[in-house]
């Protein structure tokens, strides 16, 4: 499997945990004190780091630091959009499209030779 694909797959999985750690508590722990949500989110974030650190180490063998960051941002926005719609029942707005197009431009500039 190509290094960029291994990196992307690990970052996708990492972002699922990250997005849940950052925003999932708003739906599932809204009636609990913030400290409970913070501690449980830290526990979820551990799994994010267990995937993100190897993803970055693998990716850095062929990608630049900037390329890794842009890949993370693109994947992060994609995961966040899906999370917003399917978990948090938010409506998908055109703003996500505009943000995605901005990231597409950033991706072009970072990955061009």
UniProtKB/TrEMBL annotation:
Recorded hits in PANTHER family, A to Z, give: DMT FAMILY PROTEIN
The record's Pfam families line, in alphabetical order, gives: DMT_6
Q: What is the name attached to this protein's record?
A: DMT family protein
Entry's transmembrane regions: 34-53, 74-90, 96-111
Q: Per UniProt, which keywords does this protein have?
A: Membrane, Transmembrane, Transmembrane helix
Q: Which InterPro entries match?
A: DUF486
């Amino acid at each position: 499997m190509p290094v960029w694909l291994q990196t992307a797959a690990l970052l996708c999985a990492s972002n699922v945990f990250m997005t849940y750690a950052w925003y999932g508590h708003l739906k599932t722990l809204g009636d609990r004190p913030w400290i409970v949500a913070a501690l449980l989110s830290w526990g979820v974030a551990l799994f994010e780091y267990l995937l993100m650190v190897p993803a970055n180490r693998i990716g850095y063998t062929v990608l630049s630091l900037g390329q890794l960051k842009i890949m993370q941002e693109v994947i992060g926005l994609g995961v966040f959009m899906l999370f917003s719609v399917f978990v948090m029942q938010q409506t998908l707005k055109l703003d996500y499209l505009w943000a995605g197009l901005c990231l597409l431009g950033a991706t072009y500039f970072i990955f061009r030779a």
